[in-house]
């Protein structure tokens, strides 16, 4: 038996819950953690519900203490603009991708002083990086906060063949109606894939 949840709905619940500070999206290699986060950023930018900032940990020099500041500088913000953003009441969402890729077991919430920002944080991490550690949540929330109140997580898994087929069929139908593509060749290839 498997439990299927709507990740978008889980994210919206996380964003609305004033007690939740941190969310972990975990999954195996290739389950779509990074792609989902990029999709999420695009959706949130369009909705203007919150200001999302995408942070790619492996690309940063000082991820341990300056991940936000370094990312904002890469986005061409000056130190003064960064300070104004930090001091403002503007609600931010830091989407921190690739925790497993830095090969660390530090609480970046603490080391980056994220309590000094008006923010929520979503981390991504491969499940294998935290497997076997029953208290892995401590890497994703400030130490003085209650896990049950401040932390939420979602586990992504690979699609099975039926889910892939259903997705491809919906994509083809949407493409025909919304994008006005000639999808007959693509649909034929999907049908061949589905019949294998």
TrEMBL record:
Gene3D superfamilies: P-loop containing nucleotide triphosphate hydrolases. It holds the Pfam family NACHT. Residues 23-173 form the NACHT domain. This is Pentapeptide repeats-containing protein. It comes from Hexamita inflata.
